[in-house]
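In keeping with the milestone schedule agreed at the kick-off meeting, the structural modelling team has produced records for the first pair of proteins. Each record is given below as a sequence line and a structure-token line. The laboratory manager (R.T.) confirmed that both were archived under the project's standard naming scheme.
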Amino acid sequence: MKMKKIIPLITVLIAMTITTNAQWQQTSLSSENIYALATDGTNIFAGTGGAGVSLSNNNGGSWSSVNNGLTSTGISALAISGPNIFAGGSGMFLSSNNGGLWTSISSGLTNSVVNSLAISGANIFVGTDGGVFLSTNNGGLWTSASNGITVNQIISLAINGSTIFAGTSNGGVFSSSNNGTLWTAMNNGLTNNNVTSIAVSGSNIFVGTYGGGVFFSNNSGGLWTAVNNGLTNNNVNSIAINGTDVIAGTDNGVFISNNNGANWTSVSTGLPTNTQVWTLVISGTDIFAGTRLGPYGVWKRPLSEILTGINELSNKNSSFKLYPNPASDVITLSINKSNNYALALNIYNVTGELIRSEPLQKDQLQINMEGLNNGVYLIEIKSKESTSKQKLIIQR
């Protein structure tokens, strides 16, 4: 929705209306358990419990089966690297043409039950019921890479730079900094060892557990702290990170936190009670949720909708206001400047990269946003003595 410049009061009323009416919408892929989601540009792939892989190339508007050559109809993991799509279920499969044709790539994989995938450059890691396996040639050959892991079932994998993290069933978290040659347990402070999901943002790591909620570490897993305030369901199946926001899929809907899990807010409007959200993926300006055990299928919601409510809470004490939000080309900043310190404007994208920085000279300013693509950004106003941040959504 493209919004023109309007006065602040009207902007607030519109934002309240959008928030009130906002909710998750079920897509036409509605009759299968969804265990994996992956996105590549405009393509969204869904791994189902019994119907193989489905593809949408119109943002979830419609789906088609892409199973030619796929001998496993239960797909539990998906990962994309360049033109290659990897699917794990009963064995491993590779497609280089958007699922038009799949090839079995299970040579050396001594356990065929695949639960998770992670890719770093030429290194592809697979988590199975028999440990971790590594391939350096697009799945042409797999070798065991589990030395030091004391349990067999690997549920989740995540990579941060040269370090890979593995979440296990009842064994906690292990990490390796040498491509799986040796793993070390990283469970200090982790009171639930059934680790279903891992998400990494810089030095911050979040793990979801089944029964213990979410744990947070800001030192690469050296120490974990439970961060569950406001999280009313502690069975966490999936975690996604969008800039400074952490989104959790649980056995009772979706929750979001914008302060490293210290506080969570439910954003499940439109989802039936006790919906098991098994997997989450962000594609452009939308977030998709894969559910299981009824309601089935893929659900969709604009990312701006779930950020609006949390931003209203976080922005109450902010030293500035911005409007309109969402915006198209120009925003107005109204700054409560109580001192003579110079101010700077910083704009960050969803990955935390600083994409613009400039000084601010007046108490109320108009800033041109024409160079920014649709998406979510972090606006930071910084002075010598303080820093204040707010989310901005660009939507045209």
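The second protein of the pair:
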Amino acid sequence: MPKMKSHSASAKRFSLTKSGKVKLNHSNHRHKLGIKTTKRKRGLRKRGYLSESFAPTVKTLIQKQ
């Protein structure tokens, strides 16, 4: 049986906490920043957590067994 591989694109974008939550960086913080308000840009700097409904799918993509 071949070795299981993680989904590389997902592994680069998501990471797991010790409690099992899925961390992510917010999107829309690369270009066209002059249009966005300072408050919005400040919020996009912080790490976010994936919703509980999507978390099981992402966990299966990023695990490497």
